[in-house]
Q: What sequence folds into this?
């Protein structure tokens, strides 16, 4: 199963002798394809690669809000920040800024638990929906609903429900005779809350993706397994899971990346009521860039570190998948 | 419940994977299940649906009450009314934000899907130098955290005089949606047989003509999913729009925070606004939902 998603990163080929002729020849041969991908290349080049290069440059300086170029009225003040080399990275990696490792630890916990729970629930729901059930369309629509609602609205709904004074959860449990809880009060409670909300938002995607995967598993496999006397559990382990592998590997990779970078849920659910304990790396970097005296260089360095972590993870992940498949 | 009766042969085919404890009971046709299993199945699905739907219904419920309804949810039933909607629609900047969001989201969807589709097709059908690294780039681009791009993008947009313009925001959103869409669509195009392309070429269509006249209509499920994704991305994006757009051009996600983020949150308006915002997203969703499963898995797996 060599799918293109499993392609290794293409290595840059060394230019062969006669660069111009070979360029001309390949232009003649491939111009059609290149023209068709040109818009995407331009968009990515201008809006992603250039800012990335600029971000890398910023991360090597000590730029903050105070010393970047700005216009105050008619007066133009030039940039006065300096090149500081890898200082920002050293601050982060050596743990001197005191925030990186705690944030990294929580980010990893957050990502792993969110992806694992979301995948488990998504797979479970997909397997239920894959059976002949009455009202299947109704269930499917209901279960996909969290995906159809923009994330920030879902988050606001949860925030309203978690509210310690007036939230519906407290109404329910006081009716059941239990004491009120401060759902978003302690850092631990906040962490649980953001995970719950993220799972709520993420399950529909998982469910839809795995449902399609389930439907693509040929029925004959199940029949053969049944003929051989496989129990339902054995059928699940030996037919369903292997059959789902192509879908699983893709959705897990995607949702790991998305969760790792999940910005709006944490940012909006907790607003300003956090102690900073619930910040994952991305929200921490965003706050660095936009609250107080904006620390552009520090935020950029954080961004690059996050990117490197993700690239390393996905490279490793795909290589692992490939070696297992052979 | 539903499936206790013995079904005819037509119903058994898709059902063969159910089999709840078949060995302990006496013979039961494939695909049927006991009453207990049916009850459990429906109970689980109902619970899950309730969890999925409840927060959304709760917002609708609160929005129908008076402005302070969120403090006494039990009072809402006695004071049903549309006061919140009236305030949001006629006495706040909400319609302006709404319009801004519609413009930005529609433009992002159109632009994103168009350019993603053509490059997805090129990558799927034509072998050319750089096509593997392009796929890899699409994947990597998804990993860019907001924090690394937002400051440089802001500077870039400022240089181009695109801060606080629709075009600027649309372009920024394209950086999020285009790579994903191209990735998905490439996978979807892979599932369409190449014979169709060849037939088109034999009949004298150019490669682009083949793509536009034959493949695009066939790829509707895939296109629907990517359009849905682009639209939702633009419709609900918070970080960029709150930094890039002034209050005059604020989109919904940024504007609605002014209801909530102040010291005393105006949850009445918040909820009403949320309901109005969710409606277009819901409509788009209903239009594409039948394509979601097909489009998503083809793209996701064979990508």
A:
């Amino acid at each position: 199963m060599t799918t293109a998603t499993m392609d290794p990163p293409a290595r840059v080929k060394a230019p062969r002798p006669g660069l111009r002729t070979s360029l001309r020849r390949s232009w003649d041969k491939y111009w059609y394809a290149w023209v068709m991908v040109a818009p995407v290349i331009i968009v990515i080049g201008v809006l992603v690669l250039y800012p990335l290069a600029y971000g890398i440059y910023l991360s090597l300086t000590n730029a903050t809000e105070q010393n970047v170029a700005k216009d105050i009225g008619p007066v133009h003040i030039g940039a006065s920040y300096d090149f500081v080399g890898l200082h920002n990275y050293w601050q982060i990696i050596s743990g001197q800024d005191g925030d990186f490792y705690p944030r990294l630890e929580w980010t990893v916990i957050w990502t792993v638990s969110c992806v694992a729970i979301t995948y488990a629930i998504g797979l479970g729901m997909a397997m239920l929906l894959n059976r002949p059930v009455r009202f299947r369309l109704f269930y499917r629509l209901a279960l996909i609903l969290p995906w159809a609602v923009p994330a920030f609205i879902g988050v606001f709904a949860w925030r309203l429900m978690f509210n310690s004074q007036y939230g519906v959860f407290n109404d329910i449990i006081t009716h059941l005779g239990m004491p009120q809880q401060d759902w978003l009060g302690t850092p631990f409670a906040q962490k649980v809350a953001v995970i719950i909300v993220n799972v709520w938002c993420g399950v529909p995607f998982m469910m839809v993706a795995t449902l399609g995967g389930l439907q693509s598993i040929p029925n004959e496999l199940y029949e053969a397994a049944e003929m051989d006397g496989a129990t339902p559990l054995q059928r699940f382990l030996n037919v369903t899971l292997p059959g789902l592998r192509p879908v699983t590997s893709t959705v897990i990779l995607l949702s790991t990346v998305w969760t790792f970078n999940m910005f709006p849920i944490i940012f909006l659910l907790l607003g300003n009521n956090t102690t900073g304990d619930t910040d994952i790396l991305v929200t921490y970097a965003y706050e660095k860039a936009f609250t107080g005296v904006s620390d552009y260089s520090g935020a950029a360095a954080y961004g690059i570190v996050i990117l490197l972590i993700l690239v390393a993870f996905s490279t490793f992940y795909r290589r692992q998948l490939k070696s297992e498949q052979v | 419940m539903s499936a206790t009766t013995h079904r005819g042969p037509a119903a058994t085919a898709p059902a063969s994977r159910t089999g709840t404890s078949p060995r302990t009971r006496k013979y039961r046709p494939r695909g049927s299940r006991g009453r207990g299993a049916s009850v459990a199945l429906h109970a689980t699905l109902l619970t899950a649906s309730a969890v999925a739907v409840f927060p959304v219904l709760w917002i609708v419920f609160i929005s129908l009450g008076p402005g302070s309804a969120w403090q006494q949810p039990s009072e809402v039933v006695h004071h049903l009314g549309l006061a919140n909607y009236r305030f949001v629609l006629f006495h706040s900047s909400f319609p302006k934000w709404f319009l801004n969001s519609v413009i930005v989201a529609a433009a992002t969807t159109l632009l994103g899907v168009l350019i993603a589709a053509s490059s997805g097709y090129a990558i799927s059908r034509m072998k050319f130098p750089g096509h593997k690294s392009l796929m890899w780039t699409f994947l990597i681009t998804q990993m860019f955290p907001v924090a690394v791009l937002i400051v440089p993008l802001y500077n870039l947009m400022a240089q181009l005089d695109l801060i606080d313009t629709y075009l600027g925001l649309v372009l920024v959103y394209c950086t999020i949606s285009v790579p994903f869409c191209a990735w998905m669509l490439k996978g979807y195009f892979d599932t369409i047989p190449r014979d169709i392309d060849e037939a088109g070429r034999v009949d004298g269509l150019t490669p682009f003509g083949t793509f536009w006249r034959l493949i695009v209509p066939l790829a509707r499920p895939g296109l629907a999913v990517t359009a849905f994704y682009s639209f939702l991305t633009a419709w609900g994006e918070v970080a960029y729009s709150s930094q890039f757009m002034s209050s005059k051009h604020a989109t919904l996600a940024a504007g609605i925070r002014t209801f909530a983020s102040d010291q005393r949150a105006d949850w009445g308006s918040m909820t009403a606004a949320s309901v109005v915002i969710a409606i277009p997203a819901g409509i788009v969703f209903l239009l594409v939902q039948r394509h979601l499963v097909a489009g998503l898995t083809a793209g996701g797996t064979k990508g």
